[in-house]
Amino acid sequence: MKNFLQMELIERRDLTEDLAVFRFRPEQPVEFIPGQYMTIGIEKEGKKILRPYSILSSPLDPEVELLIELVPQGQLTPFLWTLKPGDRLWYRPRILGKLVLQEDSNRNHHLMVATVTGVAPYLSIIRTFHYQLQRRESVTPPRICILHGASYTRELGFLAEEMQRYDQQYDWFTYVPTISRPSENPDWQGEIGRVEDVLRKWADTLGFTADKTIAYACGHPGMIQNVKEILQRARFERQQIKEERYFTIPRAKGGTDASSAAGRA
Question: CATH classification of 109-245, choosing from 3.40.190.10, 3.40.50.80, 3.10.20.30, 3.10.25.10?
Answer without folding.
Answer: 3.40.50.80
